[in-house]
Amino acid sequence: MVGMLFFPQEKVLLAIKYLASGAFMQICGDSHSSHKSTVLSCTLAATIGSPTALADEKTLNLIKESALAFKKTVYVPSGAFWGAEDVKKMADNGKLKELTITMQKHPSAFRLETPLKEMNESFDGISKVLYEGPVKYLCGLAPNNVNTMAVACIAGHNLGFDKVVGRLISDKRLSSWHIVEAELKGDNGFCVKVTRKNPALSGAVSGLATYDSFWSSLKSNLKFYS
User: Fold this and answer.
1) Which one, of 162, 200, 173, lies nearest residue 80 by Cα?
2) Cis ω on the peptide bond leading into residue 115 (within 30° of 0)?
């Protein structure tokens, strides 16, 4: 069941908590013993700050159903994903055939789950490919590091989390940089490759330009669903 009946005063309080705290819809809903779809019903629109959550198919479908049921719009900030609007245009036209996102960071910049955590802590040599495959599975293994990849899956919606490829590389030389490369392919050999080199403090999860790009992208969010 999507949502539930609420008195107007309760809707206002729920919406204020969501907007003021910036917390996930589920967290706000739990505090009021409400379903997260109900939180969406109490807002004019919603922005998903951590799109890795959308790799979960149940969450993805619930948000789509709720947006449709309550006639709401859901947005995703493009953040550090360069060229998100262009990727979305290709996906809208069915022209996006392949999309690969490669993220390279110093080992100390990753916050990983097993088994990637152990791989990152113990590899020999200068660099190590920790993961290469569908972004869908990587989101659960590196939820703090791959929001950029998740945004790529939303923009490239005709491929989605199952077909957009994520490549995670741990590189001991990158103590001051985070590097994200996006490579896409379309019809008739069309190809674009973009590299974003973001200065970063040692051990930081996010680069120095990430916060500015996130807040700037809030002004022109990707429309995820409406």
Assistant:
1) 200
2) yes
